[in-house]
Design brief:
Layout (H helix, E strand, L loop, with lengths): L7 E6 L3 E9 L2 E9 L3 H13 L6 E6 L28 H9 L3 E5 H12 L7 E7 L3 E7 L2 E2 L33 H5 L1 H8 L11 H21 L3 E5 L8 H13 L10 E3 L7 H16 L2
Parallel strand pairs: 1-4, 4-5, 6-9, 9-10
Antiparallel strand pairs: 1-2, 2-3, 6-7, 7-8
Helix pairs in contact: 3-8, 6-7
Amino acid sequence: MTGARPLFGGIEAGGTKFVLAVGHSPTEILARHALPTRAPEATLRQTEAWFREQGPLAALGIASFGPAVVDRADGSWGHIATTPKPGWSGCDLAGHFARAFDVPVGFDTDVNGAALAESAFGAGRELASLAYVTVGTGIGGGLVVDGRALHGAAHPEMGHLFPRRHPADGEFEGICPAHGDCLEGLACGPAILQRWGASLSDLPDDHEAHAVIASYLGQLCHAIFAMTAAEIVVLGGGVMHTPGLLERTREAAARLDRGYLPGGARHAIVAPALGPNAGIAGAILLAQAARAENS
């Protein structure tokens, strides 16, 4: 740590890996580390050990995979809710690190963290509203309005709406363990692999899968614009690395809208300006906010 400047810790807790970082701000990260997401006890022990090597923390922020309990008034705040990931249901993420380091802890979903970072420093830094959607192992989304992530009864679950089925995709049952053929069950990376035998980026450019997935993501973006009036939707995650998918998704959303939405050209579908750093930058933001709330 340089001088008396506070050192903030951030955890982007993903279902596949934990990304850890320390820095003076979301744009001034000094060190980072990644480790695979194993059973909770081993993963939290390794995470704690890495942060102890970095120096005293002023606060820690966690941007976590979900479902997660993000309501501060809930006695289970900071816990992972019911999840298909073995062993993680009920894990007290925030409480573990608050006890380990005796510092303020901020906690939100990984997509809300990424949305906060893109809103503050990335694609939405000059806008009042932004939705961030990740399309990867699962599909999730967060919404930020005037610098604050949307929380209601819980956090948004944008990946679990039910899209109109594409004509070329009528037989696939979907893989979501809760809903079958919700958006996540149809368009996430594992769903693509299960029915076409390859990732989207490995399929030929003229393969029907590109139009099918773009159709589903276009429906999601149109729904976000129609229901929230968000100015932009930022599409991140591994599936979005597929060449041409962003453009196909824009075209699909435009076909659905037919020029109706009053936001017009103010609605845009874009790639993350922060790239893969959005989630960990959001975690550092959560740490800063937690320290401010407790000062």
